[in-house]
Design brief:
The complex is a heterodimer of chains A (276) and B (286). With 276 residues, chain A is of the alpha/beta class. Chain A contains eleven helices and ten strands. Chain B is built from twelve helices and no strands. Chain B starts with a helix and ends in a 9-residue tail after the last helix. Chain A binds chain B through residues 56, 58, 61-64, 84, 86-90, 93-98, 100-105, 112-113, 116-117, 150-153, 163, 166-167, 170, 176, and chain B through 94-95, 98-99, 164, 166-177, 180-181, 184, 187-188, 190, 276, 278-283. The complex binds adenosine-5'-diphosphate and magnesium ion. Adenosine-5'-diphosphate (ADP) binds next to strand 2 and helix 1 of chain A. Residues 48-49 of chain A line the site of magnesium ion.
Chain lengths: 276, 286
């Protein structure tokens, strides 16, 4: 596999301008390689989810967000474009942190995105698509004979794999995954991890994780985000064995005590909210 | 008083209050069912018999005119109001409009909710007079729809808000438009949306003040949308004031029909909601 760049961010800044102003991202420039699994790590509240959502303009669904900079998918700008946002999001899929079945049957969950974009010609084709994507996430054998039952009745681990299948079915180039294993039991988490590793053959995967072990296990590249800034971006080997930055080293060594630069006027309680 | 006495005392108070409310409710419903049910069962045909020419005086015939009036006024009003309410509630969601806007609208809706229905009645009457029209079924529909709208909107808005944000994120993440996402959110909140519409219907079918001087208070069979009509609550009011004992007894029968209709509808909505609750993301159950 070649390691072309699939997605780049340039000087990306995101500010929440609600009741209090939060600079969640402060000029982030990253290259995400194609067909690689890139992990974004960092302490809670450092802007991981914000970064992920800004990659396909998902934060635009909430009010009070200001953004500057740009994201490029290949040659195409994500922000400076006339292309409708839904079309962009079709190419850059997103799997939310909470495993969420849409209020539809298992079959319709997978078929939903395909139907939105009208990318099938017959019922047979759709059936085949649904089956192949459920196979891809190793869920088919478990749900084969209950496709018409509500997706919400599956176990949490199964729902998360259903979410993956649903996102893959719209054939994105890039898949954004926000802590997709954090709500799962260890066994389901492992199965989702395996699925992700399989998937990078065909997709570019960018995942947020708060688990360094997980990043170490399955990622090719690691981006370390800290208080809205990229501290280090490296391949997984270098990152964990031979990090360039002192900060990274401390973080890897489990130094959870957060230090603040003098220039930073954020109070500690604001910048690092307790894990929910 | 120590903490435990305090908590026991409050427990007693809470239980007493609940018991009182339930007792009053059971009393009202059972008196209506007992007295109304008796009259109704003695001669169920009064519900499907048109009123005689001297019905309000002597109780000849039945009150089919009010039953039909209720159906033809509250049915369309509920449909119109539900469509408007669901659209408004969707528009009030954060991804459609600003927080400040939806706060302001919600405040107005609360005011409307608290407005006595007779005020809507007077308002519509003023319009009727201003445009030189006659009171009719049509204006009854308008008045009831205005009355139901804030109730349904608030319920639907609450239901949509309680749908998990991740449904929206997931749907947008698949490349859905705002409208497609709104439909999915409404679907995720369907049990609550249905409950809201049923609440609006129940309030609408039970309200007399809105139709009292907008629908025409007719004592004949309704003949068309621009003809006078009456509804069950208005009829009950008129019947209960009658000097004729039989007409007064019909008031109970009519109340019985109303209560049964509302109970039946709530039951149906529970069943429907239960069916959709299986699909609710995150396993919420209503
Ligand atoms: N909708 C929002 N409104 C205001 N502040 C927010 C919002 N979402 C996130 N933040 C703030 O932005 C910062 C980064 O949040 P987030 O990207 O969720 O971090 P992470 O995913 O790394 O835990 C945090 O300080 C958080 O409190
Ligand atoms: Mg997060």
């Amino acid at each position: 596999m070649t390691t072309n760049t699939a997605l780049t961010t340039k000087d990306l800044s995101v500010t929440y301008v609600g009741d209090r102003e939060v600079e969640a991202l402060k000029g982030v420039s990253i290259d995400f390689s194609a067909n690689q699994l890139s992990a974004i790590i960092g302490p809670s509240g450092c802007g991981k989810s914000t970064l992920l959502k800004s990659l396909n303009r998902l934060h635009e669904i909430q009010p009070n967000v200001e953004i500057s900079g740009d994201v490029h998918l290949g040659d195409q700008s994500v922000y400076n474009t006339d292309e409708p946002v839904p079309k962009l999001r079709k190419r850059i899929g997103y799997v939310p942190q909470t495993p969420t079945a849409l209020p539809l049957s298992i079959y319709e969950n997978v078929a939903y995105g395909v139907k939105l974009h009208g990318e099938y010609d017959s019922k047979n084709e759709l059936d085949a698509l649904v089956e192949s994507y459920l196979q891809k996430v190793n869920l088919w054998d478990e749900v084969e004979d209950r496709l018409e039952t509500p997706g919400a009745e599956l176990s949490t681990g199964q729902i998360q794999r259903l979410c993956l299948a649903r996102s893959l079915a719209v054939e994105p180039d890039v898949l954004l995954c926000d802590e997709v294993t954090s709500a799962l039991d260890p066994i389901s988490a492992e199965s989702v991890e395996e699925t992700l590793v399989d998937l990078k053959e065909e997709y570019t995967i960018i995942m947020v994780t708060h688990s360094m072990e997980q990043a170490q296990r399955i990622a090719d590249d690691v981006v370390f985000l800290y208080l809205g800034e990229v501290i280090e971006e490296n391949d997984v080997q270098t990152f964990f064995q031979n990090p360039e930055k002192e900060r990274t080293k401390k973080f890897i060594d489990g130094d959870t005590i957060v230090e603040y630069d003098e220039s930073d006027d954020d109070s500690p309680s604001e910048a690092v909210p307790a894990e929910r | 008083m120590d903490r435990y006495t305090e908590q026991r005392l409050f427990g007693l108070l809470a239980r007493g209050a609940a018991a009182l409310v339930v007792a009053v409710m059971v009393l009202v419903i059972s008196v209506t069912i007992y007295r109304g049910g008796r009259v109704f069962l003695m001669d169920p045909t009064i519900v499907i018999t048109p009123p005689g020419s001297r019905y309000m005086l002597e109780g000849d015939g039945g009150f089919l005119h009010a039953v039909l009036g209720s159906i033809f006024i509250v049915g369309p009003a509920t449909i119109i109001s539900a469509v408007l309410a669901v659209s408004t509630a969707i528009y009030l969601q954060s991804d459609y409009s600003s927080e400040r806007f939806s706060d302001t609208v919600n405040m107005f809706l609360n005011v409307l909710w608290g407005t006595p229905p007779i005020v809507y009645g007077v308002f519509v009457l003023t319009v009727i007079i201003a445009i030189g029209a006659r009171t009719s079924m049509f204006f009854g529909i308008v008045a009831i729809a205005i009355f139901q709208y804030p109730i349904m909107t608030r319920y639907t808005d609450e239901a949509l808000r309680s749908a998990p944000d991740s449904v929206k994120e997931a749907t947008y993440g698949l490349g859905a438009t705002r409208f497609e996402t709104a439909l999915m959110t409404a679907r995720a909140a369907l049990p609550g949306v249905i409950a809201g519409i049923v609440m609006g219907f129940a309030r609408g079918i039970g309200d007399a003040a809105t139709v009292l001087f907008t629908a025409g208070r007719s004592t004949n069979m309704p003949a068309g949308p621009f003809d006078g009509a009456t509804t069950l609550p208005v009829l009950i009011f008129d019947q209960a004031m009658s000097f004729n004992a039989e007409v007064r007894s019909h008031a109970y029968a009519a109340s019985f029909i109303l209560i049964i209709a509302v109970l039946g509808l709530i039951l149906v909505s529970k069943l429907l909601a239960g069916r959709y609750a299986r699909y609710a993301p995150g396993g919420r159950h209503s």
